[in-house]
Design brief:
This protein has 467 residues and is an all-alpha fold. The chain folds into two domains: 3-80, no CATH class; 88-173 and 184-227 and 235-312 and 336-464, no CATH class. It is 71% helix and 0% strand. It has 21 helices and no strands.
Length: 467
């Protein structure tokens, strides 16, 4: 593969992102679903690529024809396939860069109920997913037990986490889990937005919301994904002078350092494990959770030495957002429809179990765990546990556009404790290797205990609080 082919493959990414944005602007029902342009572009690339258009044209044009792979050549697909696994390291290394840890008392008071609720939803996905695997998927479909962890990986973790686990799935002997996880992440985003918008409409009609009373309040520009003129502000701050180093370059370099720190940690832990214990468990662990720890270490260092405040959170978020767009588009475009078709019934069962648990959590557990503004706060965690963090934020923005409720603040505090473990954190990354190494029963018991802690703390402690 030549450098020109790699370059053109990356240019195609930008083209499909723009087409996705154009479709979002022109198609009203996609606006109403608040679908990201990366998801739209990814589906379009999937349809126009070898998986769909190529299969339709191949019998007509022949296997040697350019059209046998649709509009996307094999070289483009070869470049796109590993992109998601690379970009997830950028996304996770950026999670805590530029953030400031708030007062712990406030975190506990405001974010505690949110953490209990999110913790319950996350661990519940493991419990019911593993039960489904043990009782149905392993005996009847000859699948490995760790597929029970795919609900949390795909729903909570999203495309990035699923992509980051690709090599791990291959080493565990079931590479098909990657395509299933990407499929679950895609269905999760769609169901999260569709069910979330439906839930918001229901909540408004039933007077369950305390802020917004009309879901159609959004302007035409907002539905199209364009910031209204009066709300436009700088995307990031110029904290360093361009003649010394471009601010974008500086922040990208810091993220690179965070990833390198994470890589060093992973290599060191792997070496110690092999030298002291003689096992190879850490060889199954992907890089991205360690990249997140690397980001925390870099942030701690900058907290001590950065007296001029040159580390700008907004700039970090722009890099993170770009990486996430590339990640989602490339992951959806390269998913194998063959694998999903081969395991269609298990895929549908995993999807159904995950959605039912999340809907139960929102409508039954949410009012009982979250002491105030339960719907505004609960819909954010529902969105995250069904789709990704961005889905949760999107739904909260619909139901609380001016941030009048404590939903955003509580959600942010929760992430400080939640993200290092679930939703793509250490537990998400370690779950499949742990189930593979020790069997599903020990991890199921552990997950049930974690679920009980979150549920009981939420129901009998935070649920009784009045803010």
């Amino acid at each position: 593969m030549t450098p020109n082919q790699i370059g053109f493959a990356l240019l195609y990414l930008g083209l499909f992102l723009l087409i996705g944005k154009w479709i979002r602007i022109r198609v009203k029902w996609m606006q109403n679903l608040f679908l990201p342009s990366s998801v739209i572009g990814g589906f379009l690339a999937l349809i126009l690529g070898p998986q769909v258009l190529g299969r339709i044209l191949k019998p007509v044009t022949g296997e040697e024809s350019f059209w046998s792979t649709g509009l996307l050549s094999p070289e483009i697909m070869d470049v796109w396939s590993p992109l998601a696994g690379l970009m997830i390291n950028v996304v996770f290394a950026s999670l805590f860069l530029g953030t400031v840890l708030p007062n712990l008392k406030k975190v506990w008071h405001v974010g505690g109920p949110q953490l209990a609720f999110g913790w319950t939803l996350g661990w519940g996905q493991y419990v019911f997913g593993l039960l489904l695997a043990i009782l149905v998927l392993v005996p009847f479909y000859d699948m490995p037990p760790f597929v029970g962890a795919l609900i949390e990986m795909g729903f909570e973790g999203g495309h990035g986490t699923a992509a980051g686990m690709q090599q791990t799935f291959e080493e565990l002997g079931f590479s098909e889990a990657y395509d299933l996880a990407i499929g679950l992440a895609t269905v999760g985003i769609l169901s999260g937005v569709i069910i979330g918008i439906a839930a918001i409409n229901w909540a408004i009609r039933k007077n369950k919301t305390e802020v917004v009373k009309d879901v159609n309040e959004s302007s035409a520009l907002k539905k199209a994904g364009i910031v209204e003129f009066e709300y436009r502000e700088a995307a990031a701050k110029m904290t360093v002078r361009p003649e010394s180093i471009e601010p974008l370059s500086f922040h990208f370099a810091l993220i690179g350092v965070a990833i390198l720190v994470g890589y060093g940690l992973l290599q060191g832990i792997t070496w110690l494990e092999q030298a002291i214990i003689g096992s190879e468990f850490m060889t199954y662990v992907p890089l991205f959770p360690l990249a997140m720890i690397g980001g925390i270490i870099v942030q701690l260092v900058f907290t001590k030495i950065d007296k001029a405040h040159i580390l700008d959170r907004q700039m970090v978020m722009r890099i993170q957002g770009f990486s996430l767009d590339v990640l989602i588009l490339s992951a959806i475009a390269t998913v194998s429809l063959d694998v999903i078709g081969q395991y269609l019934v298990p895929f549908l069962l995993l999807t159904l179990v995950g959605i039912i648990w999340n809907v139960f959590g929102l409508f039954v557990l949410g009012p009982r765990i979250l002491p105030t503004y339960w719907f505004e706060r609960g819909i954010g965690d529902f969105g995250q546990s069904t789709g990704i963090t961005a889905t949760g934020l999107l739904l909260m923005r619909v139901v609380d556009p001016e941030m009048k409720s404590p939903a955003y603040e509580a959600f942010g505090y929760k992430q400080l404790v939640f993200e290092p473990f679930l939703g793509g954190g250490l537990v998400t990354a370690l779950s499949a290797p742990l189930v593979f190494q020790f069997g599903p029963i020990p991890f199921l018991i552990f997950s049930a205990v974690m679920l009980a802690i979150g549920l009981l703390t939420g129901l009998f402690y935070f649920g009784k609080m009045k803010e």
